[in-house]
Write a sequence for this structure.
């Protein structure tokens, strides 16, 4: 997230390698890793991030453009709301950074989800009211399926 918001889009194996070496030196790994192991893990991390759409490129990896469909956003918001009932705090959860979303980006998606009748989002000053039409994830999956078709 810090790289993306700073406009740095390229990520190299060497950068991941360096971070992994720091973790090994700090004792944050299960043991001491050799050079070959660190290189394989660094390559594996980059490949996995590419497979999940976070990065793009076969050889030269770049952060992929962020895109979160409104139905997926609404479902994630419902899940997070079950664990964080405060609407204001929900906007600032670090979980949104997984999708490269700033607070403003989260607010914009809440407004869009509201316009698609997937939830109700109301703001008055610092007070945020966020409600969903049902109370369980399973029921909400049905709501999303019906309203996005």
């Amino acid at each position: 997230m810090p790289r993306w918001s700073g406009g740095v889009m390229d990520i190299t194996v060497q950068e991941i390698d360096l971070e992994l070496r720091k973790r090994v030196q700090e004792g944050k790994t299960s043991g001491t890793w050799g050079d070959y192991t660190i290189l394989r893990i660094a390559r594996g991390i980059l490949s996995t991030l590419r497979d999940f759409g976070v990065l793009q490129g076969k050889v030269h990896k770049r952060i992929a453009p962020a895109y979160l469909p409104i139905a997926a956003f609404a479902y994630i918001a419902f899940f997070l709301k079950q664990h964080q009932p405060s609407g204001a705090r929900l906007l600032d959860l670090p979980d949104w950074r997984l999708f490269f979303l700033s607070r403003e980006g989260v607010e914009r998606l809440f407004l869009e989800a509201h316009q698609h009748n997937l939830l109700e989002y109301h703001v008055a000053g610092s007070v945020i009211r966020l409600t969903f039409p049902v109370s369980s994830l399973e029921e909400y999956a049905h709501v999303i399926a019906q309203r996005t078709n």
